[in-house]
Amino acid sequence: MWGLAERRTSRFGRDFDVSDVYDQLDTLRGYVQDLTQSAGKSAGHSYGRARDIASETAHDAEDMMKDNLVASLLLTLGFGVAIGYLISRSSK
To answer: pTM for the complete prediction?
Structure first.
């Protein structure tokens, strides 16, 4: 029984080449490096696009508030009164 296992192990040892393992590790290292660079570029591009959209939306909201200044002020005043009322009720 052990003779068969020893024969298989010794056959594996003969076919085992350290230089092949190093070559495969170098190839794998290159693949990982390419993948990392690709993911970094993609994330940077997505971040830039999201930042541009958020900036544009903020400018649009600011323009809308300037165009409707009275309504914006009344809405802000209404929120302030409502929050003040809720705070005063919870402290009683």
So the answer is: 0.45
